[in-house]
């Protein structure tokens, strides 16, 4: 008989803490009636910029549109080559293809799951040899940890490439004194509900340091407007964030620093309890993760059997990501650094994530740890998976 399941991400637990403030924030929007581009949007942008140290924060409709707006502002076009890791959610490469440019998929580092700088250098050589124009890099701050920018930034500078940081999972993380959102020529994030800083619907933001670039992005977000309402000076999109979502996010941002601390404590207890039975996450020195996911591996074990056995004990899991982008149907024809991405391929067959959120109490953590410690040693690699 299965044990009572626990939630993978318990959004209700946070809502119980802040519900009165959320209700009051929504009521204020209903009272003033400015549902689009109301004062909450500007206030959220101000607070986001202050939080991460960016010069400009521009709220938008979702994390995918945030990426697309960054590329549009950089005038990305067919013939351009843009480099991104293959081990990520599809949006990272999707937006490149939207604009007719070529995504070059890059391998990842085994210890952090983030972009491998050596593979990036190879991809740039490949693009030049193929006659594409290398223009930009989209590192991903996967699972909440910043990419290794001290190694990526010199490659970008050497090749005159801009960096747009996809920090949909990593917003609020720190990297050697810098907060994600303030790293790169552009940074983008998502406020999808399951993200560490999530709304109650879709939302996103773009962060930039350049005043002129910020002005262009603000125009693009709102149909490419110019100085006159009906004189659109560029082709944009309807990428605005609703006032109600901004109001909700203002209240959630106030809790965010304490929630990052709480996630860090959960991750530490997981690692202390599991590092001798599975491969637990590595956080680079002088950095802090937001722990969007707590992802582990059990090499040599049958992952499907592990997940089934954990499910029977009421422990939910998820696989991020079972298929890297370079093997997905829509993207498999795009170039891969060096022609193959072996680390992506191998880790995609091994990873699975455990429940992670700021309100995961110690008793529930212990139940998860005990279940993994019980299940994993009993599972062997099936003949079909060998």
UniProtKB/TrEMBL annotation:
Active site: 195 (proton acceptor)
UniProt cross-references to InterPro entries, sorted A to Z: DegT/StrS_aminotransferase (IPR000653), PyrdxlP-dep_Trfase (IPR015424), PyrdxlP-dep_Trfase_major (IPR015421), PyrdxlP-dep_Trfase_small (IPR015422)
UniProt keyword list: Aminotransferase, Pyridoxal phosphate, Transferase
MF terms in GO: pyridoxal phosphate binding; transaminase activity
GO BP terms: polysaccharide biosynthetic process
Pfam families: DegT_DnrJ_EryC1 (PF01041)
Modified residues (N6-(pyridoxal phosphate)lysine): 195
SUPFAM superfamilies given in the database record: PLP-dependent transferases (SSF53383)
Family affiliation: Belongs to the DegT/DnrJ/EryC1 family.
Name under which the protein is recorded: DegT/DnrJ/EryC1/StrS family aminotransferase
UniProt organism field: Georhizobium profundi
Source taxonomy: Bacteria, Pseudomonadati, Pseudomonadota, Alphaproteobacteria, Hyphomicrobiales
């Amino acid at each position: 008989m299965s044990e009572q399941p626990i939630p993978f991400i318990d959004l209700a637990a946070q809502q119980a803490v802040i519900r009165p403030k959320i209700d009051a924030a929504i009521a204020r929007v209903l009272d003033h009636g400015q549902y689009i581009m109301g004062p909450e949007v500007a206030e959220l942008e101000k607070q986001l910029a202050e939080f991460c140290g960016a010069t400009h924060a521009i709220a938008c409709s979702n994390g995918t549109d945030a990426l697309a707006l960054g590329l549009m502002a950089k005038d990305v076009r067919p013939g351009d080559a843009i480099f991104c890791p293959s081990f990520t959610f599809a949006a990272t490469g999707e937006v490149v293809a939207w604009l007719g440019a070529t995504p070059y998929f890059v391998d990842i580092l085994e210890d952090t799951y983030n972009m491998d700088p050596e593979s990036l250098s190879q991809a740039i050589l490949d693009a030049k040899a193929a006659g594409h124009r290398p223009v930009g890099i989209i590192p991903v701050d996967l699972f909440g940890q910043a990419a290794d920018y001290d190694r990526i930034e010199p490659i970008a500078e050497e090749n005159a490439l801009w960096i747009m940081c996809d920090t949909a999972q990593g917003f609020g993380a720190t990297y050697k004194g810098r907060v994600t959102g303030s790293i790169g020529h552009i940074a983008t994030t998502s406020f999808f509900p399951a993200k560490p800083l999530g709304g109650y619907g879709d939302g996103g933001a773009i962060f930039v340091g350049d005043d002129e670039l910020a002005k262009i992005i603000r125009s693009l977000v709102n149909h490419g407007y110019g100085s006159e309402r009906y004189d659109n000076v560029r082709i944009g999109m309807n990428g605005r964030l609703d006032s109600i979502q901004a109001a909700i996010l203002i209240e959630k941002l106030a809790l965010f620093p304490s929630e990052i601390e709480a996630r860090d404590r959960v991750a530490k207890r997981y690692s202390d309890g599991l590092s001798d039975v599975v491969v637990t996450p590595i956080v680079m020195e002088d950095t802090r993760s937001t722990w969007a996911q707590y992802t582990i591996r059990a090499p040599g074990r049958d992952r499907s059997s592990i997940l089934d056995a954990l499910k029977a004990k009421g422990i939910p899991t998820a696989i991020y990501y079972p298929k890297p982008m370079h093997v997905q149907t829509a993207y498999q024809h795009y170039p891969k650094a060096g022609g193959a991405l072996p680390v992506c391929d191998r880790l995609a067959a091994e990873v699975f994530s455990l429940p992670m959120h700021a309100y995961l109490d110690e008793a529930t953590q212990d139940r998860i740890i005990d279940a993994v410690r019980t299940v994993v040693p009993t599972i062997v690699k099936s003949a079909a998976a060998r």
